[in-house]
What we know:
5 helices; mainly alpha
Amino acid sequence: YDSGRDGYIDLMELKLMMEKLGAPQTHLGLKNMIKEVDEDFDGKLSFREVRVAMGAKGAGELEEDSGLMTLAKLSEIDVSIEGVKGAKNFFEAKVQALSSASKFEAEIKAEQDERKREEEERRHRRAAFRELKSAFSQ
Length: 138
């Protein structure tokens, strides 16, 4: 989810992550999620801060209705129930779902780029036609 590749999850990356996980949050809710575990007050989450949040969930320190609790529940798996293979399948399914979403987004982007290219070609053809038309009009 670190689309900026800077080693942090910022507000917009957290927003996208929560939406993809099927638990969208309000802007204020997202800010509160960051604020709850942002140890260095930089307004973004480091890997360490996310680990601390997941540890807080295990220790029962997160509020039940908080966004972080929702995130923790969406990303947890009980290995004692599912077993190691179940955990492996869970995480592989998550990766597959994310890559499928990325492929879908890439297809949409490609279609948009194609439409822009076609529109640009139309403009060039119209300009060339007008130029030829003006040559015959003189």
